Amino acid sequence: MLDGLHATTHWKHIDEFERDFPAVEVDRDVLYVDEGDVLTSAGVCCGIDLCLHLVRRDLGAVVANEIARGLVAAPHRDGGQAQYVPAPVATAGEASLSGTREWALHRLGEPLTLRVLARHAGLSQRTFMRRFTEETGTTPLQWLQGARLSRARELLETTDHSVDRVARECGLGTAANLRLHFRRALGTTPTAYRRTFGRSTSHSPACSPAGQRSH
């Protein structure tokens, strides 16, 4: 079933998997792989990420985030993140950076640089970068980009804002930049995504009928 496709598995078994199934293109450092009809993940927690990815793919970001909150799980972890986080638990005397991540999520429309994030955490940029990567398996700027794209998806699903306004509010700047990130990450456009997942037409009488918005 997996011959000729990309797939992943738990990092402890990746060498054995690659050896026993040479016809499979093994992705060693990802949480999950989506090949359309066949999907694989790298362990139990990554299986939750994969299930949320399926919900997000089929029903949109709002529904996936509601389920994630019910599970007390992270709303979105990109499948391309590294599997193995070297130090997932803060060492003695170190506080988690979750407070800074939460702070950033409420300010995605602002210019959030590495310096700004490190200052909020009370750390040097070098220490912040190391600690952030240890906790999340990704860099601060990659995490920010994923968070902004997730926020853009929510806004497209739940509001009638123009694509330009969505781009500004999620911190991606311009409609052209938002379209670029959508194309790279999702293989679609913001307008096409809204047409599929938008719910504002059924929630607000002020919204135009589906398919009649102009962006």
CATH homologous superfamily label of one domain: Class I glutamine amidotransferase (GATase) domain
| CATH-assigned fold name of one domain | Rossmann fold
- The percentage helix is 40-55%
Computed Rg? 19 Å
Alpha-beta content class: mainly alpha
**Distance between the ends:** 42 Å
Tell me what portion of residues adopts beta-strand conformation.
Answer: under 5%
Spatial strand order of the main sheet: 1-2
Give the overall shape. globular
Q: Give the integer mean of the pLDDT values.
A: 81
Number of strands: 4
The CATH architecture category of one domain equals: 3-Layer(aba) Sandwich
Say what oligomer this is. Answer: single chain
Order of helices and strands: EHEEEHHHHHHHHHH
CATH class term of one domain: Alpha Beta
Low-confidence stretches: 82-94, 200-215
Largest sheet: 2 strands, parallel
How many H/I helical runs? 11
Sum this structure up briefly.
The protein is mainly alpha-helical.
Characterization of the model:
This protein is mostly helical and 215 residues long. Among the domains are: 1-84, 3-Layer(aba) Sandwich (Rossmann fold), CATH 3.40.50; 98-137. It contains eleven helices and four strands. The protein has helices spanning 14-20, 44-59, 61-71, 98-105, 114-121, 125-136, 140-158, 163-170, 175-186, 190-197, 200-203; strands at residues 6-7, 25-26, 32-34, 39-41. Helix 2 packs antiparallel against helix 3 (61-71) and helix 5 packs across helix 6 (125-136). It starts with 5 loop residues before the first strand and ends in a 12-residue tail after the last helix. Mean pLDDT is 81; it is low at 82-94 and 200-215.
